[in-house]
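Morning!

This is the sequence you dropped in the shared folder:
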Amino acid sequence: MTEYNAHFRCFRGCAGTYSIFEVLYTCPQCGGLLEVEHDIGALREGSADSWRRLFDNRVGTTEWPYGSGVWGKKEWIMPTIADDNVVSMYEGNTNLFWAERLGQQIGLSDLWVKLCGNSHTGSFKDLGMTVLVSVVKQMREEGVPVRAVACASTGDTSAALAAYAAAAGIPAVIFLPEGKVSPAQLIQPISNGAHVLALDTDFDGCMRVIREITHDGDSPDSSIYLANSMNSLRIEGQKTVGIEIVQQFDWEVPDWIIVPVGNLGNISAIYKGLKLMKDLGVVDRLPRLVAAQAAKANPFYLSYLNGFSQRVSVEAQTTLASAIQIGDPVSYEKAVQAIQETEGIVEHVEEHEMAAASAMADATGMYTCPHTGTALAALFKLLQREVVQSHERVIVVSTAHGLKFTPFKIGYHEGTLTEVESDLANPPVYLPPDAGIVRDTIQRKLA
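The structure's back. Tokens below.
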């Protein structure tokens, strides 16, 4: 039987490889990001057809841990983890929603929404956290002195880390920007027993603090293990989104995948999964990727405008899309590669465009978070400019469940959101218990 392996290496190409089970987040030589590199030669010993059959046969199985959308592709993700150390909630395998009615309204018949929020903690972050926490569990069993896992978060990362760490019996420490996450997101790590620290700063400030207290393995602080997306273990799980999309179309590649982005780990991960499929001959082309940002937190868009000749950082302003309110994204270099190698595009949208797109989608049966609204609004702009053609297959990645953002929904339908005109508001009608008045009201509503 072929043995598969994976290790860390420098994303910029510095010499040397490092163990997955070493406490290491950045290249020891240049300080740049690491990435997980797989043994492509060994993986190529399996034919494209054999990989497709293997992964198709594992979908929904009860054989541990292969029923997970992540661990069903274990050979491509983290092959050296012992099955007993896998910490999984059977994440992934999320459905593709055929947005038929919305597509008809905007003139796009082949529009699909990948509902990554239909996951254990309600976001795509579960996909990366199952890998990271599983690695940490194995590290602890092998004697590596990791006392706790920690992350800075705008909400979804903290929920995922807290849940998976609780399942593994590993302490979790969460850094949140005070007053900048929704109540639903705040209560998730609290409920899972994490140590939640609300800092009087924004996400970028939280990241600066956590990077100061988590260090590589030669430091006394290395016992606190960093779980943010600059840790490339997370990318390995999140890359299954791209693989899964293609698999759900019987291994046919769509024309476009549109992703809301903040710290840029998600689009980097999706590209990495797609590229691996192409390298192994499972697909013969890549879709074009679109990174969608809120105009109030748009450093990647500004960098795209200058052809990525100069990296732009901004002080992120308050945006309804709070999970992508990030002004200095960690995975910038990887995301640049993703856009350049797929002839991709970066777009940004205003608050009213985002809210209107979300409300429009909801009126056709979805229940979208503001970040999905950001991606949809970017799609509307690309259609209007005829960059996206009406006959093309488009996938919009919905990164989180709308139930996490109830204040956003209430604010829209009550008409109280700043900079947003609630043209599709649908507030309740309050009536006395009089059948005649109720009947007349219904008639007016249905006229």
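Headline: The first helix runs from residue 40 to 43.

More detail when I'm at my desk.
O.
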